[in-house]
Amino acid sequence: MKKRKSIIQCSLLTTCVTLFLAGVCFIQSSFRAVAEDEKKKFAQVESLKKIVKPESEWRKTLTPEQYRVVRRQGTERAFTGTYWNNKAKGMYHCVACDLPLFSSDTKYKSGTGWPSYWQPVKKEHVGEKIDRGFFSTRTEVVCNRCDGHLGHVFNDGPRPTGLRYCINSASLKFRKKTETNKTPKKAKPAQK
After folding, report:
1. pLDDT band at 189 (very low <50, low <70, confident <90, very high)
2. Which residue, of 111, 121, 130, 158, is most buried by count of CB atoms within 10 Å of its CB?
3. CB neighbours of residue 30 within 10 Å
4. Which of 97, 143, 146, 166 is catalytic?
5. So what's the pLDDT on residue 70?
6. Domain 55-177 is classified in which CATH homologous superfamily?
7. Is residue 95 a contact partner of residue 173, using CB atoms and an 8 Å limit?
8. Domain ranges of the chain
9. What pLDDT does residue 77 have?
């Protein structure tokens, strides 16, 4: 009987120690996960850290047309921009601060003469302001890092968002997708 009692006590002690160690491991992994999330949030905040330069500095880094569009809220003429008819795969970045803004995956032919997208790469990268110019009220789209003017967003786009981000080519810099940064395609099922 004493032997059985000591076996039960030993078994209970082993179970308690195991549960305690499992709890410690769980807490440690939870702390690691929280720390990783915090690192990611910090990196995202750092990437969106505002870039503020005097206008003289912007004039030095941008072409006259880019400066007119990005810093003075200009608009290029329809069907004249570099990217309105670009069909290459890749990423469109802000010409002023290089923040990724739009993907070729969301670009579509709107018939307007400006590059059009149905959503930005990340919603936080693109800001919106009310524009009351040209005798109407529109929604201006800006780069959230440098406040550069990109274009306007309208509610007449395709599904799934119903939005048309109508963007000036002069506010963009295109980076073509290369073989090294392509995501592997899923294998197609064999046909019978």
Report:
1. very low
2. 121
3. 10
4. 166
5. 98
6. Peptide methionine sulfoxide reductase. (2.170.150.20)
7. yes
8. 1-47, 55-177
9. 96
What's the whole-number mean pLDDT along residues 6-25?
59
**Residue 103 near residue 137, CB atoms below 8 Å:** no
* Catalytic residue flag (residue 166): yes
Q: What is the pLDDT of residue 175?
A: 96
